[in-house]
Design goal:
61% of the residues lie in helices and 11% in strands. With 542 residues, the chain is α+β, with helices and mostly antiparallel strands. Strand 10 and strand 11 form a beta hairpin. The radius of gyration is 26 Å and the shape is elongated.
Length: 542
């Protein structure tokens, strides 16, 4: 069997992935390794023979696909995170990453670790695969033929990674019990913009008080985060757009979270049981796929649906998440808009938006390739640091930085940079498993050599202590000093670790969606920062 795998690298790849991926889905004490299990299976199989390893191009291709797709999807939230609210969270994360770097340097001195092992310890204790990849790229430039040096970061990462996940979960569990956190009460008094996945409801409101201002002005002045749909006056149904002025006796449908709907109802009148949505003889609605390249990457306000078609978009579904279709919502390929308009206009709106499932299943190869090429070029540019050391973003950092910018831009002229949601997730997953399988098999022999030589236990303990200390410090400073709600802070800690398993644990503990807010606020900056710090660490030690 080993001989067969030695001469068939593609078979080796799919054996590693085929065993590792289902193993990662096994849950123990409510947690699982997830796709990282592919790395450990790769290490186990790679340890069977010194030459049992995948070609370098496999893990490099996987790495580039992984970081580029992450950057495209995280671009908008990354640049929004530099607002006043997000800045506090991101500064906390930067401080904690600096603490992690300092603790790694201390461990390296105390334990006498090789610098390359310390680099893997840093990436593993903070569970960040792109940081590991950046270290490998850095070492390939410094010592391209040093097999031990290239294997050490993966060994350190692999040994410290498990406690890198468990340590965070222990810190969250310890502090929430110590402080007796009531997540339900916290969620009721916490109103976070973008607290993702708040269930949207539709309510019919009977207007009892005349409004001098049009709907759009009311929404802006009173801060109503809702969308108006049908408007009935004197038995006639119309579309309620931003210029509509409501009068006593009018009926209007409002879409939004329950708390927002309560405020709108109190401001306008009372709840009505009139089933306006059931009458589809004049006004009708349809969920329409956004697939037309001409509308992708544009704000909903730019499309002027009320002016073009007498239509209004009420909901936007992206992946599995329903959100309000607002004027500043930027459309991405594969979004599904729920559009309300006259029955005879539905086909026109569908044609305008595209409504082609086949089209959103395809990738714009030109823009995708151009974006990746720009990222690889940026990664190859040397960045001078004090002391005469040059730093390169490499295969991990270059594509990630370019993708963040392109994801934020959305489009440039006729170039649409974004990917359909499903295509992005698929490429991301494929890229990640290729990378993990590649680095795992290439480091398996060195991994078990380190364990058998007695140095593995000290790395394991050091990684666990680094993770727990950074996690505990983040929770104490964030909650007790900065006053960040624990529901948000647990997700923020998952973003600091760039660890979906931590986010999943936080969602289970809080029973609300506020952890998503903290996670998405800091995840992009944490990823970029760890890529840079990992290389700075090696530059300081080598």
């Amino acid at each position: 069997m080993i001989e067969l795998l030695l001469h068939n690298p593609l078979l080796l790849l799919f054996v590693v992935v085929g065993i590792g991926y289902p193993l990662g889905r096994i849950r123990v004490a409510g947690s699982s390794l997830g796709v990282a299990a592919v790395l450990f299976v790769g290490i186990g199989i790679g340890a069977l023979h010194p030459d049992l390893k995948l070609p370098e191009i496999i893990y490099l291709l996987g790495l580039v696909l992984f970081v580029y797709t992450i950057g495209l999807s995280s671009g908008p939230s990354f640049f929004r995170s530099f607002g006043p609210r997000g800045m506090k969270s991101n500064l906390l994360v930067l401080g904690m990453l600096a603490l992690g770097l300092g603790l790694t340097l201390a461990a390296q001195r105390l334990l006498g670790l090789r610098p390359t092992l310390a680099g893997g310890l840093f990436a593993g204790s903070l569970t960040n695969t792109p940081a590991l990849a950046a270290e490998l790229e850095f070492l390939k430039l410094r010592a391209p033929h040093d097999t031990q040096a290239l294997a050490d970061p993966v060994v350190g990462y692999s040994i410290s990674y498990p406690l890198g996940v468990i340590g965070v979960l222990l810190a969250i569990g310890f502090t929430q019990r110590l402080w007796k956190v009531d997540y339900r009460a916290e969620a009721e008094r916490t109103r976070e913009p973008g607290a993702a996945n708040q269930p949207l409801e539709t309510r019919v409101v009977k207007v009892l008080r005349a409004t001098e201002e049009p709907v759009g002005v009311l929404m802006q002045r009173l801060g109503w985060d809702v969308v108006f749909g049908r408007h009935q006056r004197g038995g006639q149904l119309h579309i309620a757009d931003l210029s509509t002025r409501l009068q006593p006796g009018d009926l209007v449908t409002v879409v939004g979270p329950a708390q927002e709907l309560d405020e709108v109802t109190a401001g306008l009148g009372e709840v009505s049981q009139e089933p306006l949505a059931h009458d589809r003889s004049v006004l009708d609605y349809r969920r329409i796929f956004v697939s037309n390249p001409e509308v992708v990457g544009r704000r909903l306000a730019e499309l002027d649906l009320p002016g073009r078609f007498g239509a209004v978009a009420t909901r936007l579904r992206r992946g599995d998440v329903d959100m309000l279709a607002q004027e500043d919502s930027v459309l991405e390929p594969g979004d599904r808009l729920r559009v309300l308009t006259r029955r005879d206009k539905l086909d026109e709106v569908s044609h305008f938006l595209g409504d082609s499932y086949r089209a959103i299943s395809e990738i714009d190869i030109l823009s995708f390739s151009l974006g990746l090429a720009l990222g690889l070029l940026l990664g190859a540019v040397p960045i001078p640091l004090p002391g005469g050391v040059d730093l390169k973003l490499g295969f991990a950092g270059g594509p990630l930085v370019v993708a963040l910018v392109l994801g934020w831009l959305g489009r440039t002229g006729r170039f649409v940079w974004g990917l359909p949601y499903s295509a992005n997730l698929t490429l991301r997953q494929v890229g990640l498993v290729m990378f993990l399988a590649g680095v795992g098999t290439r480091s398996g022999h060195a991994f078990f050599s380190t364990l058998t030589q007695g140095g593995g236990l000290s790395l394991l303990v050091a990684g666990g202590l680094i993770t727990f200390t950074v996690s505990l410090a983040t929770l104490v400073l964030g909650h007790k000093v900065l006053g960040i709600p624990m529901s948000v802070l647990t997700g923020l800690l998952g973003g600091l670790q760039t660890q979906p398993a931590v986010l999943g644990f936080a969602l289970e503990q809080t029973k609300n969606d506020l952890p998503n807010v903290g996670y998405t606020t800091v995840y992009p900056l944490a990823t970029v920062s760890k890529i840079i710090l990992a290389q700075v660490l090696l530059a300081m030690l080598l």
